[in-house]
Amino acid sequence: MKRSCIFCGSDGKLSNEHIISKWIQKHVPKLDNKSTGEFWEAKSSPMQYSNSLIAGDPLSMTRRIVCERECNNGWMSTIVKESQPDLEPLLYGDWGKLTVEGQLRIAKWAILTALVMEKTLQEQVTEPAEYRHLYNDKHPSAGWRVWIGVASEDTKTIWQHRLFESDCERYALIISCLFVGRLVFMVAGTKPPPLLNACRMPAGTPLMEIFPSPTAGAAPPSIGEDATRIAMMAMAASTNSAVSFQRMMTT
Questions:
Q1: Are 7 and 50 in contact (CB under 8 A)?
Q2: At 152, is the secondary structure helix, strand, or coil?
């Protein structure tokens, strides 16, 4: 069966899309030569998980999942290029130039990255309509929220993807956490979108919201990997959701 583009649905030539923007490789140290993907299911008793090795540096990982002409070399490239001037200084700890408009550009890049990254994971739950919405509008739907922070130390985890089940719907809350160098991005998506109003970042968590409500001010305090897990669980609790998650880490 011929594969189609995850965004526009075209069955034209597919491109090897970099999961994490290629330009970032020049600014973040190369990771180990393989990564481990883990999937945990909290509904099972006792909790079960599986893992598999993925060859190559995770930062240079590619997948043939988007069309070359319309998406990869078109609007997706525009989102990446527009966010780079805002994102690059943050990789070096320079937050002084970050504007409200810059935060929105970075948020679009983070959501795009989360959507592409999900297609590499075992469990894929984001509705196809979210991919189509970003393709059509070139702007995220109302069902997303994005925070950014400073990682307290270099971590071998580059991606955490948690899927939270509500009482009425399977995987009503999806939270992805991406570590890029000393930066950490948390991307939350919900279905239906109004559930996002109940999703609250725990008080005192050193993450700064950049979408849909950008935050004026200096760089947030640093945050550790354990703290991101706690924040994810607390947000799930705010929506009365159970949890399962996928995690990708270097070995």
A1: no
A2: coil
Q: Could you tell me if residue 76 is inside a domain?
A: no
Residue 212: inside a domain: yes
245's CB contacts (< 8 A; 6+ apart) are 39, 40, 42, 160, 161, 162, 163, 232
Question: Does residue 11 fall inside a structural domain?
Answer: no
Looking at the 3D structure of the chain, how many domains does it have?
1
Q: How confident is the prediction for the chain on average, in pLDDT?
A: 76
Encode pLDDT of 62-82 as tens digits: 889 999 999 999 999 999 999
- Between CA 211 and CA 108 the distance in angstroms is 9
| Longest CA pairwise span in the chain (Å) | 50
- The CA distance from 14 to 75, in Å, is 15
Range of the domain at 239: 36-57+86-250
What's at 156, amino acid-wise? K
Contact 88, 25 (CB under 8 A): no
Residue at 143 is within a domain? yes
pLDDT above 60: residue 220: yes
Go through the chain and tell me how many residues it has.
251
